[in-house]
Write a structure and sequence with these properties.
Number of domains: 2
Number of strands: 12
CATH architecture of the largest domain: 3-Layer(aba) Sandwich
CATH topology of the largest domain: Aspartate Aminotransferase, domain 2
Structural class: alpha/beta
Strand content: 5-15%
CATH class of the largest domain: Alpha Beta
Strand order of the largest sheet: 2-8-7-6-5-3-4
Largest sheet: 7 strands, mixed
Helix content: 25-40%
Radius of gyration: 21 Å
Distance between the termini: 41 Å
Shape: globular
Order of helices and strands: HEHHEHEHEEHEEEHHEHEEEH
Length: about 350
């Protein structure tokens, strides 16, 4: 069996020092091969049935990665799409508790309803801020801006005490951070970051009772028998979370299938250990340079206040990071090495 490092070198050949997975993950070589094969099928008029099989293979892989039954997994295109379904299910005046400055795709669907009470508190106070009036807690597992990790067990405990449900955005965690499925009711995630898939696919995990969500986006693929549901009203919606599916971006799912096979070959625990070791190396180096990153223990994302302005110069030097609200954000993933960390530190010390 190939070692972690050997497999990573086989699958990736970045032209630069790439430390920006929190924006977009790199595509593995096997994913490029799968995308090329799918595009040639389309160009040559070959029936696309196998690409629909890829959608179901990906759904099953997402179920394994999230530790949930496949019947609870829906396929779509964006986190906001799924949040809108949850927002539509809430009664007027319902209270939604969020973390301050969380990602817009998570929180905005609740704001645009117009008749919900959306309350934002500091992330570290989220659990203690759940109250009897709270109907839903919505929070990113890992904050996009600075890598802080939500205390989901505490949030879950507080929510259960007040009969509130928990909705998490796992876009910045799925693929590297192990997650207990018992800590949430709803989960949404994009797949072009840490799961290293093409843009165009997102997934949604719902409770066993489907959460009472209205299937507002239901088209033919949401039917219990999709190919018998192409014309007129869908007579029988899928009995599973598939009733929340939208027509799939086939190429995205085909590429994603290959990427997820790599994630599962390596294993999330191994990816987690690799990523966090690199992040800790960067934090230690920052301290030696006199910089204090945002406290985010255990995170693969490191955000450094006041250094965001270095991003253009770093990019020009072949080091890709992000500028988020004035902070320099570096994100470490399986294709990164200690040499990548040291190159960034050397550039910041110059």
């Amino acid at each position: 069996m190939e070692t972690f490092e050997t497999l990573a070198r086989t699958e990736f050949a970045p032209k630069h020092t790439y430390l920006n997975t929190a924006s977009n993950g790199l595509l593995p070589t096997r994913t490029l091969t799968a995308l090329d094969r799918a595009a040639r099928m389309r160009a040559e008029g070959i029936p696309l049935g196998p690409l629909y099989d890829d959608v179901e293979a990906v759904r099953a892989a997402i179920a394994r990665l999230t530790g949930t039954p496949v019947e609870r997994v829906a396929s779509g295109a964006s986190v906001a799409e799924f949040g809108a379904l949850i927002a539509a299910s809430l009664p007027p005046g319902a209270e939604v508790l969020t973390a301050e400055a969380d990602f817009a795709s998570l929180v905005n669907p609740f704001h645009v309803r117009g008749d919900l009470k959306v309350r934002a508190v500091p992330l570290e106070r989220l659990a203690e801020s759940v109250r009897p009036e709270t109907d839903l807690v919505a929070v990113s597992v890992v904050q996009s801006a600075d890598g802080r990790i939500a205390d989901l067990p505490a949030v879950r405990e507080a929510s259960r005490a007040h009969d509130a449900r928990v909705y998490v955005d796992a876009s910045q965690s799925t693929g590297w951070l192990p997650l207990d499925p018992g800590t949430y009711d709803f989960l949404a995630t994009v797949t072009f970051k840490w799961l290293m898939g093409p843009h165009g696919a997102a997934f949604f995990v719902v409770p066993e009772d489907l959460g009472g969500l209205p299937p507002l986006l239901a088209g033919w693929v949401a039917g219990e028998v999709p190919w018998d549901s192409c014309y007129g009203p869908v007579e029988e919606l899928a009995h599973s979370a598939r009733r929340y599916d939208i027509s799939p971006a086939l190429f995205a799912h085909t590429g994603l299938r290959a990427s997820l096979e790599l994630v599962e070959e390596l294993g999330v625990p191994a990816v987690h250990a690799h990523n966090t070791a690199l992040a800790d190396r960067f934090r230690a180096g920052l301290h030696s340079l006199g910089h204090e990153p945002v406290p985010a223990p255990g995170s693969a994302i490191v955000s450094v206040p006041g250094l965001g302005g270095h991003q253009p110069g770093l990019s020009a030097a072949g080091i890709e990071v992000s500028d988020r609200a004035g902070n320099l954000r570096a994100a470490f993933h399986l294709y990164n090495t200690p040499a990548d960390v040291d190159r960034l530190l050397d550039a910041l010390s110059a």
